[in-house]
Every structure is written in structure tokens, then in C-alpha cells.
Design brief:
243 residues, mainly alpha, 81% helix
Length: 243
């Protein structure tokens, strides 16, 4: 039991260290790793609650840079996507959801590893599929960052603005998802509540270190390293389902 707790502590610490450095990525790192030993119905509410707190903290730090117009575009479609994602999480076979999470992780990990960067400004009409997919993935996989970050980096030039906008978007969109999880009973289990309380420690420590520590490699290089790691994690999940 102690070894399992230390493993979860290490996962959350590393995931939120990356979140503190880059402004996103905690869910995409933590959920696939924890899903190898725990059911998604436990992992997703845990990580999503911690992400909600982290987004509130980071959003407050950079609140003046938030682009509220983009949030107003994304939020309505995100609410619809959240309901669809929760339905899939509670009704679809666990093997199918895990395999989908593996593919999701591999895709966005490969994108980071290859250093694919947004070029050009896209139409605001992309807010519709982004909101549906982003919040749907958030409710189903516990991570909405990749679709939202891709959209925002194609719409906003300033990285601080992207980070602040995503953080406040998650506070609103993630808050709605948490309310759905409470209604579904997924956030009322004693095991989940204890895990959230304990998980606040590595989450806060990781955010603090990520914001304070200066690495010898650039953030772009770190994102590529994390991308390679995510590809391996996603493939491991897929092999687990197949085996």
C-alpha cells in the first residue's frame, strides 16, 4: 500500500511540475500512468479535481492576460461535450475507453515529440469542434488540454495569454464537469475523496517547483521529451488492453 501511494505521489508531482513549467499537460501525463493500475472512474475524477484547483491558482496569477472572448466561444460547446464524455465514461466498456485513451495519448505525444507548432490564425468557427472534443475528452480521459491548447495557440499569439485563457476556461468548463461527476456519484466515493485530499500535496509542490525551477533545457525541449514519454505510455495502455 505504501509503495502504491509513493508511486501515485511521484506521478502527480511530475505531472504538475510539467504543468507549472508549461501551463498544461498534467492530465495527459497523470491519467494514462495511473490508469494502468486504477479504474478510470477513479482516476479521472481525481485528476480533474486537482486540475481544477491548479487552473484556479494559475488563472489567478495571470488573470489580466485572459482572453474572455475566446472562452465565451468555447464554453457552450464544451458543456455539451462534457455531458457526452461523462456518458461514455460510465456506459462504454472499460477496455474500449482505455484503448481510446492510449490512442489519444500517442497522438498528442507524437505531436509534441515531433515539435509540430501552430502556423497561421484559424477561424473562430473551430471553437465548435474544439469545445466538443476538448471537454468530451476532459470528462472521458481527464484531460482537455491538447485540443484546447491547439485551438488557442492558433488564435492567440502571446503564450502568457494562452496559458491564462486555458486556465480560466478550465475553471469554468472543468467546474461544470465536476458538477456532473458529483451528480453521477463519481466524486462522492470515500476512496476518491481521500485521494483528492492527499493529492493536493504533490499537486501544489509540483506547481511551485515548476514555476520556480529553471532547467538547463528549454521548455520546447522539455515538451518534446514529455511527448516521447507520452507515446510510450499510450502504447503501453494499448498493449495492456490487447494482452
Amino acid at each position: 500500500m505504501t509503495g502504491e501511494l509513493l508511486w501515485v505521489f511521484a506521478i502527480l508531482l511530475g505531472a504538475y511540475f510539467v504543468r507549472g513549467l508549461t501551463g498544461f499537460g498534467s492530465g495527459l501525463i497523470a491519467v494514462p500512468l495511473m490508469a494502468m493500475g486504477k479504474p478510470l472512474q477513479f482516476v479521472v475524477p481525481l485528476v480533474m479535481t486537482l486540475d481544477f484547483v491548479a487552473s484556479f491558482i494559475l488563472g489567478g496569477i495571470n488573470s489580466k492576460q485572459t482572453n474572455w472572448a475566446e472562452i465565451r466561444r468555447l464554453l457552450p460547446f464544451g458543456l455539451i461535450g462534457a455531458m457526452a464524455g461523462l456518458y461514455a465514461l460510465t456506459q462504454f466498456p472499460s477496455a474500449l475507453v482505455l484503448a481510446s485513451l492510449g490512442l489519444f495519448t500517442v497522438f498528442f505525444g507524437a505531436r509534441n515529440a515531433l515539435g509540430i507548432k501552430p502556423e497561421g490564425r484559424i477561424s473562430a468557427l473551430w471553437a465548435l469542434p474544439t469545445g466538443l472534443v476538448g471537454s468530451g475528452a476532459g470528462a472521458l480521459f481527464g484531460t482537455s488540454a491538447p485540443p484546447y491548447i491547439i485551438y488557442l495557440t492558433h488564435r492567440l499569439e502571446d503564450k502568457t495569454e494562452v496559458r491564462a485563457t486555458f486556465s480560466w476556461l478550465f475553471v469554468l468548463d472543468g467546474g461544470f464537469r465536476l458538477a456532473l461527476f458529483v451528480a453521477a456519484g463519481l466524486l462522492l466515493r470515500q476512496e476518491t475523496l481521500w485521494a483528492i485530499a492527499l493529492g493536493l500535496i504533490p499537486m501544489l509542490l509540483g506547481l511551485y517547483l515548476g514555476n520556480r525551477v529553471h532547467l538547463n533545457i528549454s521548455k520546447e525541449a522539455l515538451i518534446r521529451v514529455v511527448g516521447v514519454f507520452l507515446v510510450g505510455t499510450g502504447m503501453s495502455l494499448i498493449f495492456k488492453v490487447i494482452a
